[in-house]
Amino acid sequence: MRVGETRNEQSAQWGKPLDGVRILAVEQMQAMPYATQLMSHLGADVIKVEHPVRGESGRAAKPAMIDEDGREVGATYLRNNLGKRSIGLDLKADAGRDLFKRLVPHFDIVAENFKAGTLDRLGLGYPVLAELEPRVILLSISGFGQDEESPYHAWPAYAPIPEAMAGFYEQNRTGDDRPRPVIAGALGDIGSGMFAVIGTLSALRHRDITGLGQHVDIAMYDAMVAMQDIGPLMYSMGVPENPTVAGIGLFAGYRAKDGHFVLHCIREVQFAALATLLGHPEWIDDPRFAERQGWARHNEEVIRPALEEWASGRTKLEACHELCSAGVAAGPSNTTRDNLVDAHVQARGMLIEVPRPDADDPLLLVGNPVKLSRVAEGPIRGMPRLGEHTREVLSETLGLGEGELSELTERGVIA
After folding, report:
1. Is residue 80 domain-shared with residue 205, that is, in the same domain?
2. Which of 55, 125, 229, 319 is most buried, most CB within 10 Å of its CB?
C-alpha cells in the first residue's frame, strides 16, 4: 500500500469503528504512539501534543531523515505516527497547561506515557481531567503502573527492562551466558500498546453503560508477565525454569540451502509425520523417541542431521511448504529483505510506502494488522510535521482567532 491508497475499498460505505472518537495524546517514543496509531487506523482522530521546539523524544532517535521543514526526524517517530495531527504546546508553561485543559472536554481520551506521576506533577492528573470532563478516559502506559505500592513505581523503563523482568531473556539462556536483550520494542512496547488499545475500547464501552470515563492504567511489566504466561504455569507444574532446557518437544532452527527455518513439533502425530516425511518411519517405534523429551534429547545427534540433509536441496520456504503440508508446523527464519517480497505481507497490505522529501525511495512502515471485513483500510495520511496542525486544531476546537494564535506563538506557548 501507499499513502493515500485504500485497501478493501468496497467497505468504505460502512465507515470505521472509531469514527468520531477523539484522542489527545501526550506521548513519546514507542508504546503509546503505537497504540494511538492503531486507533487512528481504526478511525480515531488523534491529536498529538508535542513540545513546540523539540517535539516528542522519538524525533531525536537514529537513524533519521530530513523533513519538509529541514528538521531531522528519527526512526522511532516515523514508525508510529501515521494519520495523526501534531500541535506544538508547552505544557510546562501556565498558558500551555491552560490550553490543554480547555481542549480536554472536546476529547474522548487523553493518552500519555510519561513516567508514572509526571502528569500529576503537571497538575493534569486524572482527578483534574475528570473534574473538567467526567466522560473523559485517561489512558496511561508506564513501566510499572500508577500504583505507588509497586517498589518499581519510580523506575524509568524502555521495552527491554520489563521484557527482562518478566523472564523472556531467560528462555534461551544457558549456563553462564549473558541475557541478550532485543532492542526492537516488539514485546515491551507493542505488546503494552495492544493491551492499551484493549483497555481503551473496554473503557469506551463501559462509558456507554455508565456515562463516565475512567483511568486505564497499563504497566509494561504487567503486560510482559501476561505475555510470559507459560512461565508461572510451567513452574507450578514442576518444569525447570528454562523450558528450552526442559526439552519437551522439538523447538529448533534448522538449515536449508538458502538460510534457516524454525520447526515446532509438540504432538506425537506431528513427530510421526516428520519421521515419515524424512524417510525414517522407524523413529515412530524407536524407544528413544517414546516420550517428547526424547525428541529434544536426541535432536542434535539423530534428528538434525537427517532433517538438514533432507532440507539441503530445498530453499527454506520450500522446506516449510512440505513440512506444513505434512502437518508439521514450520516457518522460514526471514530477514527484512525476505519480508519485503513475501507474498503474504504484500497480499495483506502489511507494508506502507511513505514518500520522503530527502530521498527518492519511500519509507516502508508496517500496516494495520487488524483486518475487518466491513472496514476499509485507508486512505492513510503520512506522519505530521512538528506543530503542523496547531493553528488548525486550536481554531476548530477552541475557536481561537489569528490574533490570539499569533500572541501565543510569539510567547513560545505554541508552535
Report:
1. yes
2. 319
Query: Are residues 318 and 265 part of one domain?
Result: yes
String of b and e for 154-173 (b: at least 16 CB within 10 Å)? ebebbbbbbbebbbbbbbee
251 in the same domain as 163: no
Question: Position 255: which residue type?
Answer: R
338 is catalytic: no
Task: Give, in degrees to the nearest 5, the angle at Cα 138 between 134 and 143.
Answer: 155
Which three three-digit cell numbers place residue 55? Answer: 517535539
> Considering its fold, how many domains does the chain have in total?
2
Q: Which of 67, 108, 189, 222 is catalytic?
A: 189
- 218 and 287 share one domain: no
Spatial separation of the C-alpha atoms in residues 240 and 229, rounded to whole Å: 15
The residue segments making up the domain with residue 142 are 9-228+369-410
In a domain, 341, yes or no: no
- pTM score, two decimals? 0.93
Enter the C-alpha cell of residue 272: 510421526
Round to whole Å and give the CA distance between 79 and 81. 6
302 Cβ partners below 8 Å, 6+ apart? 283, 288
Residue 143 belongs to some domain of the structure: yes
Q: What angle do CA 71, 111, 354 make, to 5 degrees?
A: 40
* 385 in the same domain as 322: no
User: Residue 364 is placed in which grid cell?
Assistant: 516502508
Kindly tell me if the per-residue pLDDT of 239 is higher than 90: no
Give the gyration radius of the chain's Cα atoms.
Answer: 25
Same domain, 212 and 285: no
User: Do 385 and 255 share a structural domain?
Assistant: no
Label residue 262 left, alpha or beta by phi (over 0 means left) and psi (-120 to 50 means alpha). Answer: beta
For 289-316, what is each residue's pLDDT tens digit? Answer: 999 999 999 999 999 999 999 999 999 9
pLDDT tens for each residue of 41-91: 999 999 999 999 999 999 999 999 999 999 999 999 999 999 999 999 999
Instruction: Kindly compute the dihedral angle of the four CA atoms of residues 270, 276, 279, 282, in this order, to the nearest 10 degrees.
Output: 90
Q: Of 31, 51, 44, 128, which Cα lies nearest the Cα of 84? A: 44
Looking from the CA of 172 toward its CB, the CA atoms found within 13 Å total 6
Q: Grid coordinates in use for 9? A: 475499498
Longest CA pairwise span in the chain (Å):
86
- CATH code at position 390: 3.40.50.10540
In a domain, 14, yes or no: yes
